[in-house]
């Protein structure tokens, strides 16, 4: 039985994850942690009185009071590393959905995992279409070496660029020729050309009405290629979150990206 604590339980993703957990026979929600008041919402969400769920704003305390064996984190860029650290100290398995984990953070998590028995999956995007979009973009980069990324999200998102855009740039970067032969450019408004990661321009759009979307645009001689993915709701991420929780049993140590646990 997967006995799961969700951090960020009252958030948009946390609520969807709790709903998904309640639909699995071999998953049990034992703790719901959020700094917003989660109590009523959890009971409403599960549609039952769920006294067995430890509801709190403190992960360490919740870990003390439950026999959880998995943490699923959907908090945000500012707190995710603290939560991962608490879980690593307890040596429980972790699925990280919150974005903003940097390369330095990833190294720290791997360091904390040295000699430990717990497993960690960090996935900037759990939607299968997004994983395919990233893989197709990586493949296209072998043939077209001019590319920019436009990611578009709802206006409540606090981190920019998205974790997906960063991971996409890293995957494309593995196949991209380094010589871009760009002309010198003058930015008349700072940021007009977006940010750069691994030499790839990333543009972040934030608007109400959007959920999570990304275009990877390649340019070549007399042609462009656009690879686009749209998550139109947050259910799109749930099969991936469920899969990650199940795959914890099969992996070793720390895995970054769901592409590393599915057979592509
Ligand atoms: N990997 C993936 O496939 C996906 C990842 N994400 C990522 O997941 C994260 C959450 O997204 P989303 O649900 O939209 O965001 P929300 O802001 O809706 O949810 C985050 C929740 O975490 C709470 N929170 C803040 N600080 C703490 C803390 N210290 N301890 C516990 N809870 C805390 C927030 O409370 P309060 O509002 O009071 O601050 C909020 O309820 C983001 O990083 C996002 O980028 C999102 C979608 C898919
Ligand atoms: O905040 C979001 O909503 C999302 N965040 C993730 C990211 O930063 O890539 C995944 C998805 O794009 C939705």
From TrEMBL:
Residues that bind (S)-2,3,4,5-tetrahydrodipicolinate, according to the entry? 154, 163-164
User: Which ranges carry the Dihydrodipicolinate reductase N-terminal domain?
Assistant: 3-126
Q: Does the keyword Oxidoreductase apply?
A: yes
The EC number(s) attached to this protein equal 1.17.1.8
Q: Report one GO cellular component.
A: cytosol
Instruction: Tell me the compartments it is located in.
Output: Cytoplasm
Question: Which Gene3D superfamilies does this chain map to?
Answer: Dihydrodipicolinate Reductase, domain 2 (3.30.360.10), NAD(P)-binding Rossmann-like Domain (3.40.50.720)
Complex and partners: Homotetramer.
Q: Could you tell me what this protein is called? A: 4-hydroxy-tetrahydrodipicolinate reductase
């Amino acid at each position: 039985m997967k006995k799961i604590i969700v951090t960020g339980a009252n958030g948009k993703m946390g609520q969807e994850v709790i709903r998904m957990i309640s639909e699995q026979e071999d998953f049990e929600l034992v703790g719901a942690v959020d700094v917003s008041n989660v109590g009523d919402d959890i009971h409403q969400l599960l549609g039952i009185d769920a006294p067995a769920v430890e509801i709190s704003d403190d992960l360490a305390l919740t870990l003390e009071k439950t026999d959880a064996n998995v943490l699923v984190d959907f908090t945000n860029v500012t707190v995710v590393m603290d939560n991962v650290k608490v879980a690593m100290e307890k040596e429980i398995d972790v699925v990280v959905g919150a974005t903003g984990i940097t390369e330095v953070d990833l190294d720290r998590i791997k360091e904390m995992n040295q000699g430990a028995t717990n497993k960690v999956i960090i996935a900037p995007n759990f939607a299968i279409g997004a994983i395919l979009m990233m893989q197709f973009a990586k493949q296209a980069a072998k043939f077209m070496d001019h590319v920019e990324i436009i990611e578009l999200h709802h206006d409540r998102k606090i981190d920019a660029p998205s974790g997906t855009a960063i991971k996409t740039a890293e995957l494309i970067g593995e196949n991209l020729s380094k010589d871009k032969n760009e002309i010198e450019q003058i930015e008349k408004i700072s940021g007009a050309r977006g940010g750069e990661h691994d030499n790839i321009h990333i543009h972040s759009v934030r608007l109400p009405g959007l959920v999570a979307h990304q275009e990877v645009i390649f340019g070549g001689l007399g042609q462009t290629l656009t690879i686009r993915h749209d998550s139109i709701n947050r259910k799109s991420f749930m099969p991936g979150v469920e899969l990650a929780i199940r795959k914890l049993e099969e992996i070793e140590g720390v895995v970054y990206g769901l592409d590393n646990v599915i057979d592509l």
